[in-house]
Design brief:
This protein has 467 residues and is α/β, with parallel strands linked by helices. The protein has three domains: 2-160, Rossmann fold, CATH 3.40.50.10770; 173-195 and 324-464, Trna Endonuclease, Chain: A, domain 1, CATH 3.40.1350; 203-321, no CATH class. It has helices at residues 13-22, 38-49, 72-90, 106-118, 164-169, 192-199, 201-209, 211-228, 252-262, 317-341, 397-405, 420-423, 435-443, 457-464; strands at residues 2-7, 26-31, 62-66, 94-100, 124-131, 138-141, 155-157, 173-175, 239-248, 273-275, 287-291, 306-315, 347-352, 354-356, 367-373, 376-383, 412-417, 424-425, 432-433, 446-449. The strands form five sheets. It has a seven-stranded mixed β-sheet with strand order 3-2-1-4-5-6-7, sandwiched between helices. Strands 13-15-16-17-20 form a five-stranded mixed β-sheet, with helices on both faces. Helix 7 packs across helix 10 and helix 8 packs across helix 10 (317-341). The chain starts with a strand and ends with a helix.
Length: 467
């Protein structure tokens, strides 16, 4: 039998990875009153990895010690007392004791190291002291005295890569879902948002490629739909709409053509785009395109004239979400999903709602896109339109709020926004992100992807992560 000793702190992932790697028979958790709740988070995360991980005091394979994190004597003394008491009862019960000194305070790490290294009452035949350096997937073996030797490799690679639910539960966060067991092996099309994203790959890409031409239409459509305040209920019953989108446009003919193409994709096939003289009477939704002043469709030469798009018919909740900005979330998800399919990203989720497992409270905001890579969690916040009232720094507000909901767990965040008016400096440094926005983003450990680079979002994120 092997015993693994862990130091408990706010950072739970190194503990989970070390336990999963060594798969010990028993655990000794060295904690403080302040972070003792983290022990249950670690145990829940382990159960998400495998049902074989089943540690509890009742089963006699889990022990805990609370120490003073700033007292070397207290840490070392309590550990030595525990070793002596255990050995007097059971002898050298363990074949090996593995001490992970990664967590806790520096004082706790020093106390555990000395207690294991120096005590004569260790209830094991041998011991190993290990450490996981930050932002690595390596376990350093501090027991081997072979530094400087070319043929010595005092570390092992951690092969485990956590998915989103394993990462979350290890930190006391749960995913809001009717059946969260579907996430045990990562996000897949059993999750409706993933299924909808995969169903709209081509149409999302179409909007991204033609965004500059469709931007004014989409902005008008966003505001007209939001004004309706449609009361979608839990059954997501479709609602009737009858709205007019009136917007400035420099090339009426091209825009009309693109709008017709947009509503000709299968996802929006039940909608229709036609001229005001359309004879089609059988379609659920008729979108008539006309000019506010009577001019020929083939003579759109006055840039000051507006396009007037009439939209009438039924709209479902998922279509509403898509047309009011969800298309960008789905575009980013599908682009990054290629990295998941290649085995680079470990997991990838979209439209993820979470709750605090200790309080049961749900986070106020929804995460647009989340992914895990090399046992770190990343988030991508997608903002498709300049909604008029936004300021240069408001655009990062939601990222700050989301990070707070996660307890600042994300290693890095990305802002993917088409709102170039609020992001790009067109005065002092044309084409570049505004300096004050850069500074605030840096404080949030956030990388801003320029609107002109969004079509290549996958490559931009790979570049930022040095993949």
């Amino acid at each position: 039998m092997n015993l693994l000793i862990s130091l408990i702190s706010d950072q739970t992932i190194p503990n989970v990875l070390c336990i999963d790697h060594y798969k010990p028979d028993a655990l000794l958790m060295v904690s403080t009153e302040k972070v003792s709740a983290k022990i249950n988070f670690i145990l829940n995360g382990l159960k998400r990895i495998s049902e074989d991980f089943d540690f509890s005091k009742e089963k006699g394979n889990l022990w805990t010690i609370n120490v003073n994190p700033e007292s070397p004597a207290d840490v070392e003394g309590k550990l030595e007392n525990w070793f002596a008491d255990f050995k007097s009862r059971y002898g050298e019960k363990f074949d090996e004791i593995i001490a992970n000194i990664t967590g806790g305070t520096k004082i706790m790490s020093l106390g555990l190291y000395n207690a294991v290294k120096l005590t004569k009452n260790l209830p094991a035949k041998k011991h190993t002291i290990v450490y996981i350096p930050i932002n690595t997937n390596k376990i350093i073996d501090l027991s081997k005295n072979c530094y400087g030797s070319y043929d010595c490799e005092p570390f092992v690679d951690i092969k485990k890569r956590l998915n989103i639910v394993q990462y979350f539960e290890s930190n006391g966060i749960g995913i809001v879902s009717k059946d969260d067991r579907i996430f045990n092996n990562g996000f897949n099309d059993s999750y409706e948002s993933v299924r909808l994203a995969q169903h709209t790959i081509e149409i999302s890409k179409f909007i991204m490629r033609n965004y500059e031409s469709l931007k004014n239409f989409l902005t008008s459509l966003f505001h007209e739909l939001k004004v309706l305040q449609i009361p979608f209920n839990k059954h997501n019953k479709p609602h009737n709409i009858d709205i007019r989108c009136i917007f400035k446009d420099e090339n009426h003919e091209t825009t009309i053509k693109l709008i017709k193409e947009l509503f000709n994709f299968n996802y929006l096939k039940h909608f229709s785009v036609s001229s005001a003289t359309s004879d089609n009477k059988n379609l659920k939704v008729n979108i008539s395109v006309e000019i506010t002043e009577p001019v020929s469709v083939h003579h759109f030469v006055d840039d000051n004239k507006n396009l007037n798009v009439h939209i009438k018919g039924e709209i479902a909740k998922h279509e509403f979400d898509f047309l009011t900005g969800g298309w960008l979330e789905r575009f980013c998800f599908n682009e990054l999903n290629e990295l998941k399919e290649q085995g680079i990203f470990n997991d990838l989720g979209i439209n993820v709602k979470v709750r605090n497992l200790s309080t049961g409270m749900e986070a106020e905001n929804e995460f647009d896109v989340l992914f895990t890579y090399n046992n770190n969690l990343y988030m991508v916040e997608c903002k498709s339109l300049n909604q008029g009232h936004d300021t240069e720094t408001d655009i990062l507000y939601k990222i700050s709020a989301l990070q707070a909901d996660l307890g600042r767990l994300t290693t890095r965040s990305f802002l993917a926004s088409t709102a170039s008016e609020n992001i790009i400096d067109n005065k002092d440094n044309p084409g570049e992100v505004k300096e004050n926005l850069k500074k605030r983003a840096k404080m949030l450990n956030c990388s801003i992807i320029k609107p002109s680079d969004l079509i290549n979002v996958k490559e931009e994120i790979k570049k930022e992560l040095k993949i």
